[in-house]
Amino acid sequence: MTDSVPVALIADVIDSRQHADRDHVQRSAEDTLEEIARRVPPAEGFHATVGDEFQAVYSSRNEALRATLFAGLLPQQGPQLRFGLGEGRVSGVSSRTSDRIEDGPGWWHAREAVETVESQQRRFTFLRSWYISDVPEQALMINAYFLARDQQLGGLSVRARDYARGVVEGGSQKSIAEAYGVSQPAVSKLLRESGAAALIEGFRMLT
Known about the structure:
By secondary structure, the protein is α+β, with helices and mostly antiparallel strands. It contains eight helices and seven strands. It folds into two domains: 7-134, Alpha-Beta Plaits, CATH 3.30.70.1230; 158-206. The protein has a five-stranded mixed β-sheet. It has a two-stranded antiparallel ribbon with strand order 5-6. Strand 5 (91-93) and strand 6 form a beta hairpin. Helix 1 packs across helix 2 (61-73), helix 4 (136-154) packs antiparallel against helix 8 and helix 5 crosses helix 7.
């Protein structure tokens, strides 16, 4: 699969209206997205748009997939996010009433994708990401991966998430073991038995 087309990303907060403190929800979501952007920098940074929605642009499919994987490996505390990824050209439209209006196929696909996640969550409550592009075979492959990946992520323990996040960030099992005061075989065993190792390998094969 080619990886030279930008990917627009729309993130929104799941069930945001059920949270009593809307300001807290906003701050929590922004903290999470800032952490994602630090680890996997987007070409155009996350910014709030309307309500509980945020937008960003990644320079490639692989980086967008890495960002959503990293999001799933963060501690799952507080408001949760879902992501719609749209592959395609993105552009700005000039306006006298706004600094910039986002437009282009990438954004159209991202909008369709985030709406699809919300719809699919009625059947697959664990699902967090969906991908739309002009190449149906590519989107089908990525979304099959998302279904398997997000279900696996939902069952990971806190420690398994920590170890897997370290691997995704480029750390060795030895360095992760030293950071957590355990042995390298202990790290390897938990990654393998939790399914995190297979999850990471699937990402590597796809990208």
